[in-house]
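Can you please make up a protein's amino acid sequence together with its fold in token form to help me picture the idea?
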Amino acid sequence: MKYGFSQKLFGYFYHSSCMKQAKRQHLQIDSKAIKQEYRAILTRAKDIGKSRLMSSYCMGAYFIALNRNTTLSPEECYALYKDGLSANQLFHKVMGNADSYLDAKKLPARKKWSADSHKRKYENDWVVDILEGGANDDFELGYDYHTCGICSLCRDEGCFELARYLCRMDYVLADMMHMRLVRTQTIAEGATHCDFRYSRIDSTPGKNS
């Protein structure tokens, strides 16, 4: 795929977050090698067009590059990634909060995204069904992902086992936005689809336990 402005911007964001965290932990990491590998991965990656989840595709590419160019284990790389993004206040602002994410006004665009995704124009792009929570549901917004771009990218790069670490980042991002995420299965763990269910965190004691 083309290594353009969006890919460079997301890469810079993830890289700066991780390198600042590495410095806080006094880790010796070859920053240049990671950046070069990140670019190489995306350059040979299958195109996903103007996907809504390009940032996630780039996140997967960067995580692969990080693993390949450090002596850290995948678990240690995940911790570095998680802590680096969590400490980045700009990232918190970009992610927004539960009110902005769960805004009902965004539903029509999400449903159009879902319909377009089922055309499967790009092999590695996500294919998703959108679920709107009703009065009797315990969630407000749901996603059933039938194809995962990160899983596809990791498979293409011969490191499918790394995809499950990126799955864990979904909970980190939900926490940042003060949302509750419930998920019972993922493609990375061998399921046919990933089932995401989001809701606001109720302040009533024990409500979300």
Q: What stands out?
A: The longest strand covers residues 141-147. Residues 203-209 have pLDDT under 50 and may be disordered.
